[in-house]
Design a protein that fits this description.
The protein has 301 residues and is mostly helical. The protein is built from 14 helices and two strands. Pfam families: UbiA.
């Protein structure tokens, strides 16, 4: 594991391994998992709760490392990812593979032994889905990669719930659906102003395959589906007014921003202000929605 700088070989350090775990993505995974855990009925010992969240975070890190191992050559072609440890030459691919497999085995094993095997099984499947189904199959082969692949990021709240209850009911399924239907408009907004990067890497993202107008139509359409899924827990009586009011407000704002993107005719990435606003808000949207859901359930309890 070396990188050449001024003819001096320097070993990859802890920051490179940390970068392999995709810490920004991990933060969202950990937060939604924690909210799923807090929203679940019943109780769990604080040590076991910490263990469950640690395992979920470690599993997310394993997924990120395996993704970067497989996509090292693609990452080198994209400005957004060229500085990662593998394309930048700071680490050998074999080291990333070993690191990812080690994290995956550790996270699933500890989750099963310390918490329960249902949550461990879902965690194992989520790692497999992201590293194999999404990264190796969907992403390079179909513009619907984000639609189907959205399931990979939707498992954490279900795992958090299962860690407490040992089962899966309708509410964690709706939490899964919330992230699943949030993923396409979130990533397609990004793909619109990062179109040239994905094109350089040969990744068939929707804007590169179907065009910008079709992508904006899809974003707007999925925003209505997202809104319906988001308010469902309240309409079905599973949550109270805290989550209900938050969901209505958040989705009204999301639809306004999605409509602005739909009306936009911007072609150049530098002019895509509507898409950039939608992408930025979509991240905040998910944090607020899950925080409100967890708070609401805790208050009701």
């Amino acid at each position: 594991m070396t990188i050449a700088t001024n003819n001096i070989s320097l070993p990859a350090d802890w920051r490179d391994f940390w970068a392999l775990t995709k810490p920004r993505v991990m933060s969202l995974v950990v937060f939604t998992a924690l909210c799923g855990l807090l929203a679940a009925p019943g109780s769990i010992h604080p040590v076991l709760a910490f263990t469950a969240i640690l395992c979920i975070a470690t599993g997310a890190g394993a997924s990120g490392a395996l993704n970067q191992w497989y996509e090292a050559e693609l990452d080198a072609k994209m400005k957004r990812t060229a500085g990662r440890p593998l394309p930048d030459g700071r680490m050998e691919r074999e080291s990333a593979l070993q690191f990812g497999i080690g994290l995956a085995a550790f996270s699933v094993g500890i989750m099963g032994v310390a918490v329960n095997w249902l949550s461990a099984g879902i965690l194992a499947f989520s790692i497999f889905f992201y590293a194999v189904v999404y990264t190796m199959w969907l992403k390079p082969n179909t513009p619907q990669n984000i639609v189907i692949g959205g399931a990979a990021g939707a498992f954490p709240p279900v795992i958090g719930w299962a860690a407490v209850t040992g089962d899966i009911t309708l509410l964690p399924v709706l939490m899964f659906a919330l992230i699943f239907f949030w993923t396409p408009p979130h990533f397609w907004a990004l793909a619109l102003f990062m179109k040239s990067d994905y094109g350089a890497a040969g990744i068939p993202m929707l804007p590169n395959v179907a065009g910008q107008r079709a992508t904006r139509n899809q974003i707007f359409g999925y925003s209505f589906v997202l809104a319906a899924v988001a308010v469902a827990p309240w309409l079905l009586g599973m949550t109270g007014i805290i989550y209900g009011a938050t969901a209505v407000l958040l989705n009204a704002l999301f639809l306004v921003l999605a409509f602005a993107s739909w009306r936009s005719e911007s072609i150049d990435a530098a002019d895509m202000k509507a898409e950039k606003r939608l992408f930025a808000f979509s991240v905040l949207y998910l944090f607020i929605a899950f925080a409100a859901l967890a708070l609401d359930r805790m208050v009701l309890a």
